[in-house]
Amino acid sequence: MLTHLDHVIVAVRDLEAATQTLARLLGRGPSWRGEHPDLGTANALFRLSNTYVELLAPAGSGGFGDLLRVRLDAEGEGLLGLAFRTTDAAACSETLRARGVDARSPQPGHGRERDSGALRHWRSVLLPAADARGLLLFAIEHEGIGDELAPAPLQAVEAASVYGLDHVVIVSGDLDATRRLYGEILGLRLALDRVFEERRLRLLFFRVGGVTVEIAQPLGAPGDGRDRFMGLSYQVPDAEAVKARLAASGFDVSEVRAGMKPGTRVCSVRGRPLGVDTLLIQPAARREAAVR
């Protein structure tokens, strides 16, 4: 039903400033600068190898733009939602309803590129907040050029730039309920369910289209039943090269260290850029290639 993590959405106040920040972080410029006149929002899209990141800001008046302002005032900038790709929005909606979700019928949408006037069209299926455990989750079927969004252009040497998204981190208030949502209802493949006693965590890894949705719950911590977005982990070719570039451009970056997965190297970007906990990971295969 869901083939990929189509994109992640980050809510921001100042789209131009946020676009510059994300471009410096990724070492890549935006693929698209758009607006949604009917919604009162504007966006910048950064296409990576396996998904894209959308920066979304209020722009003018409009129903969703006004809601976004309320959200930003209450919670600040940060991860807002996940969109999963489907090839058939109508069938997706029917399947969700058969699985007990009060999913809406597919809703049409469109975005316009700010400078060229080019249009993107889609149909989306929104999960009600109660079924999505308080998060913004929806399925999206692109029409026209949606799947042909240009890769985010390099603005730094490739070895020192982000090329993909490794995982999204969600903190669960009820891990068993969250497992049912992503496994039984959304149909994502559960790749790991493990307790890490030394870290006092239970982690679930769901895989979809080359990206991991990581669900975490602290052991023994009383949950309030809500799920919350926490952060993003980006894939990089050379962790040391990316660390050096980011430090030179003003980011506070940790030392490179061994990752949880054998053979990986990671570093953290401190200060939560755009309100998002940010980790950079050099996968084992990339590390071996860099050594050779």
What does this molecule look like?
The chain is an alpha+beta fold. The chain folds into two domains: about 5-150, 2,3-Dihydroxybiphenyl 1,2-Dioxygenase, domain 1 (Roll); about 160-290, 2,3-Dihydroxybiphenyl 1,2-Dioxygenase, domain 1, CATH 3.10.180. It has helices at about 15-25, 65-75, 90-100, 175-185, 240-250, 285-290, and strands at about 5-10, 30-35, 40-45, 50-60, 80-85, 105-115, 120-125, 135-145, 165-170, 190-195, 200-210, 210-220, 230-235, 255-260, 265-270, 275-280. The protein has an eight-stranded mixed beta barrel. An eight-stranded mixed β-sheet has the order 10-11-12-9-13-16-15-14. A hairpin with a 4-residue loop joins strand 2 and strand 3 (about 40-45). The longest helix has 13 residues, at about 65-75. The model is unreliable at about 285-290 (pLDDT under 50).
Return the string of H and E elements.
EHEEEHEHEEEEHEEEEHEEEH
Mean pLDDT: 93
The rough form would be described as: globular
Strand content bin: 35-45%
CATH class of the largest domain: Alpha Beta
Structural class: alpha+beta
Q: How far from one another are the termini?
A: 40 Å
Helix content range of the residues, please?
10-25%
> Strands of the biggest beta sheet: in what spatial order?
1-4-3-2-6-7-8-5
| CATH A-level architecture of the largest domain | Roll
How many β strands by DSSP? 16
**CATH topology of the largest domain, what is it called?**
2,3-Dihydroxybiphenyl 1,2-Dioxygenase, domain 1
What summary fits the major beta sheet? Answer: 8 strands, mixed, barrel
- Count of the separate structural domains: 2
Count helical runs: 6
